[in-house]
Amino acid sequence: NAGVTQTPKFRILKIGQSMTLQCTQDMNHNYMYWYRQDPGMGLKLIYYSVGAGITDKGEVPNGYNVSRSTTEDFPLRLELAAPSQTSVYFCASSYLARGQGTEPSYEQYFGPGTRLTVT
Amino acid sequence: KNQVEQSPQSLIILEGKNCTLQCNYTVSPFSNLRWYKQDTGRGPVSLTIMTFSENTKSNGRYTATLDADTKQSSLHITASQLSDSASYICVVDSGYSTLTFGKGTMLLVSP
Fold this sequence. Notes:
The structure holds two protein chains of two kinds. Chain A has strands spanning 4-7, 10-13, 19-25, 31-37, 44-51, 54-57, 64-66, 76-78, 87-94, 109-110, 114-118.
């Protein structure tokens, strides 16, 4: 199992450009998440998905869009990039929803991250 | 407002020594508390998950404690190794749609 993979690893965008961050998991997890991590700050949830075709906003969704057409893929779209979106983006997946138990499959597995700079 | 506060912000210890990291939270309701290890340039990796009824949980040289009454948790690392150098993040799950992450404690283990 590759786990959770993310591409690209690094990207520099100009203000106003758009891009898609890719996330794929091969663990057949139904739940997937996108977080951002700003320097010296805790991770913040952007969007999450409970299964193919179902997505919902997290704590900081503005400026982002997501889709979930398959169980494996959960891309994050940035439209009109702004300097405030400079951050490290992490995708994660879990088999069960948060709050439903503490079995090992309940854990969130994180990808390696995408470092994005908007200038 | 739900908050997770970690201390110290950073810590340097000698290889082979023990250390304890602290986590205080004001998250309600409470479902479980997790500790993650994040190596530089990598995603977080889960160390432990504890529910309300669990006071202590170990994972090798890592031992986490939870006092749900005082809303405090600690992560104790025994016989530290160079590979323990990382950021350790405390996360509280309220059982709803948002996990509350602490800012992390940056640990450096020096030879």
